[in-house]
Amino acid sequence: MLLRCRIPLAHFELDIDVSFDSRLASIFGPSGSGKTTLLDAIAGLRDITAGEIEIDGSTLFSSARGINRPPRERGIGYVPQEGALFPHLSVRKNILFGAGRSADISRSKSISVGHVLSVLEIGSLLDRPVTKLSGGEAQRVALARAILSQPRLLLLDEPLASLDIGLKEKILPYLARVRDEFKIPMIYVTHNLTEVLTLADWVLMIRQGRLVTQGVPKEALRSMRAIMQLPEDEFENVFTVTFVESDPEAGRTKVRLQAGQELFIPYLPRPGNDTIQIRISADDILVAIKRPEGISAGNVLPGTVRRIDVVDGQAMVTVAAGDEFYARLTVSAVKRLDLVEETPVFLIMKTRSLRSL
Amino acid sequence: MILSFETWQITIFSLSVGLASTLLILPFGIATAWLFARKEWPLKSVLETIVLLPLVMPPVSTGLILLKIFGRRNPVGQWLYERGVEIVFNWKGVLIAMAVMSFPLLVRSVRTSFSEVNPRFEQIAATLGASSLRIFFVITIPLAYKGIIAGALLAFSRALGEFGATILLAGNIPGKTQTLSLAIYSFVQLGKDSDAYSLLGITVALAFLFVWCSEWLLRSAKKA
User: Fold this and answer.
1) Angle at the Cα of B31 (from B133 to B160), degrees rounded to 5?
2) Cα(B103)–Cα(B88) distance, rounded to whole angstroms?
3) Are A97 and B128 an interchain contact pair (Cβ–Cβ within 8 Å)?
4) Is residue B40 less than 8 Å (CB to CB) from chain A?
5) Based on CB atoms within 10 Å of each CB, which residue in A118, A205, A266, A316 is the most buried?
């Protein structure tokens, strides 16, 4: 996928020049950084001053060659932030609105209605007016509508932004299923780091219309420039783990990190899929230089400090303990413990501060 | 209130020609309103002003312009006359006068309702592969239909009230071009007060009904 475009905006110019190949790329950046504009440009809903957009080897836009294919010929499914379900049509008619598009512009094998309904679990909503849907339902219906237009690329604009936290965690797994079931490349816009780490295999970080950094999420986020723009409460560690066993009496569940270490998380009934994702805020990890004893925290992992980045009196300590963990400490704590690269440490995590997605 | 055969005839004639004029301008009005609401072009405001002119110009002046255009001695009128169509001093003149006078009201009302349709719906429909025509008929029109009906009702009421342009273009010929408004004027002139009051009652009732319906539609469209 090649995206090269310049678009004048009110206060700055969006100027992006990237080329990447991923299943789910996330465009990450603060509000007002030009993310929605970029999606609109890809979908053909916005004029581009100069540039080129190429997907799957087919050119959708090229100022040099005078190509500008209209939105309806681009084969791009777009789920805008507000969902934009057609308010006068039923769920069924919304979902089937784009289903008549011939599959040949995009894919050889078309996606069936039944498959989409079952993956998104919206079969029971078909005859409802869209005005009677909850926020989460409306997002799934908008997603189904876009997928059934058999797109070659799916654009999602902060699909979770308007939902409250409880609902977010319910929708996230649907997005992961859509990514895995339908094999449609996706571009996912968000300003939420957890969503990036959970879903994306590539991240483009933009700010004020410019690309700050890009790469595999964990690595891109490690880059200092990236960390500096993260809002206070958003720096979370996200891990994919395997379910080991659950003990309702003890109120905890044992899971295993990819590197083999075991962790306790709050009790969780055995999930249908043994792979789950867990997260913990960088502010909730304690660092000790001796193995602690007599503490309530259920998880103590030995590891080694890999790097320490200091920004504004905050130190982001990267610790390799099988997987890499980020712990945010004060500079004073780093000095007291005399932490430097290669210092052996212990990471302490309360069971209850680890949450599953 | 018992209506004479004559007042009945006048009422039915007015309603029929008014309805025909509304139906005639509806497609053009919707198209014009859509262009004004969704498209930009150089000197657009000049065209917008021209369309609105009949709303503010003295109706008699508009009537005079129409008479100049459709009179037999002018190119358009002559061309039509040679094809057997005569506009001046018959019901077709009434139709044209009503149509021209009510067109701006229709356009204004429909334009507002198009502007209130979020363009995002149309954009998303386009990404789903819909043609412009399909977007217009399946998304835009259904989302704006209340405003369109309200506009048509307003245009219809305006058509029924038409006087100045009609009297110049079609005359005031009893049984041929006499509408409600023209008849009230004639009856008062001739001292036939009871007939004039009957027609007055009818016009007030119709006007009330149409404006009330149209306001109700616009209010419920805003709520939706």
Assistant:
1) 140
2) 20
3) yes
4) no
5) A205
Determine the Cα–Cα distance for residues B192 and B6; give it in Å rounded to an integer: 12
Domain range list for chain B: 5-223
Considering the entire predicted model, what is its pTM?
0.77
Taking the C-alpha atoms of residue A355 and residue B187, their distance in angstroms, rounded to an integer, is: 86
Of residues B121, B129, B131, nearest to A84 (C-beta): B121
CA separation for the pair B203, B197 (Å, rounded):
10
ipTM of the complex: 0.82
- CB-based contact (8 Å) between B129 and chain A? yes
Distance from CA of A206 to the nearest CA of B (A): 24
User: Which residues contact residue B73 at a Cβ distance below 8 angstroms, ignoring those fewer than 6 apart?
Assistant: none
CATH classification code of A2-229: 3.40.50.300
Chain B residues inside the 8 Å CB shell of A76: 127
* Distance of residue A245 Cα from the nearest chain B Cα, in angstroms: 45
Closest CA–CA distance from residue B128 to any residue of chain A (Å): 5
Residues across chain B: 224
Residue ranges of chain A whose CB lies within 8 Å of a chain B CB: 43-45, 70-72, 74-78, 80, 82, 84, 86-88, 97-98, 100-101, 145-146, 149
**Rounded distance between C-alpha atoms, residue A283 and residue B77, angstroms:** 85
The angle that helices A113-120 and A165-182 make with each other, rounded to 10 degrees, is 150
Q: How many whole angstroms from its chain centre is CA A352?
A: 23
Alpha carbon distances (Å) from A354 to A175, A224, A251, A254, B44: 22, 25, 13, 11, 61
Determine whether the interchain pair B120/A43 forms a contact, defined as Cβ–Cβ distance below 8 Å: no
Give the Cα separation of A135 and B163 in Å (integer).
54
Contacts of A7 (CB under 8 A, 6+ apart): A13, A14, A34, A37, A38, A41, A46, A47, A48, A49
> May I ask the CATH architecture of the domain A236-356?
Beta Barrel (2.40)
Domain assignments of chain A as residue spans, ordered by start:
2-229, 236-356
Q: Does domain B5-223 have CATH number 1.10.3720.10?
A: yes
The number of C-alpha atoms within 13 Å of A107 and in the hemisphere containing its C-beta is: 17
Round to whole Å and give the CA distance between B217 and B154. Answer: 11
Q: Please answer yes or no on whether B127 and A77 come within 8 Å at the CB atom.
A: yes
